[in-house]
Amino acid sequence: MSWVALVAVLLLGVTAGAMLAEAALLVPYWQSLTPNEFFEWYAENASRLVDFYSPLEIGSALISLLIAIACSIQSRPGSRLWWTAAVLSIVVIAMFFVYFKDANAGFLNRTVAEDALAAALSSWGRWQWARVFIGISAFAAAVLAVRAKT
């Protein structure tokens, strides 16, 4: 296994784990807060979340894509699995633009009504669990890709 593939597998694993932590730890914490506490917490920490998750998700997608291209050009084993990892990583990013961008803006700008916050956080959590599943699947594809013999 090349060191680049090892870095890619590690990055995909860290990304999936970070998304899992957000779904399993942050969302329940947010749900335990009053609406005012949540909106204040989110206003203080939204930029930290973006600064943490964006490089992980973008890095995972880029390195997977680069390895997929290189493996395809060189007809190396595992290229299809690297393509799977790359596409799934891109889907994780696309989900931000499909759902999370507006949802997060609603939290940041407090445009979500207080009586609708519980439902909004529940929806956010379901979307995040979907991202976790996709991220873990990308990680699994990369692990299988480095083990591929044909």
Description:
This protein has about 150 residues and is mainly alpha-helical. About 85% of the residues lie in helices and about 0% in strands. It has 4 helices and no strands. The longest helix is centred in the middle third of the chain and has 39 residues, at about 35-75. The model has no long low-confidence stretch (mean pLDDT about 95).
List the helices and strands and how they pair.
Elements: H1 3-32, H2 35-73, H3 79-108, H4 117-147
Protein traits:
single chain, 150 residues, mainly alpha, 4 helices, elongated
Quick recap:
The protein has four helices and no strands. The chain has 150 residues and is mainly α.
In sequence order, what are the helices and strands, one letter per element?
Answer: HHHH
* First-residue to last-residue Cα separation: 14 Å
Give the class from helix and strand content and strand pairing.
Answer: mainly alpha
Report Rg.
17 Å
The shape is elongated
In the predicted model, the low-confidence regions spanning at least 5 consecutive residues are none
Largest sheet: none
Oligomer: single chain
Mean pLDDT across residues = 96
Strand residue content: under 5%
* Count of individual helical segments: 4
Using DSSP, what is the number of strands?
0
| Helix share, percent | over 70%
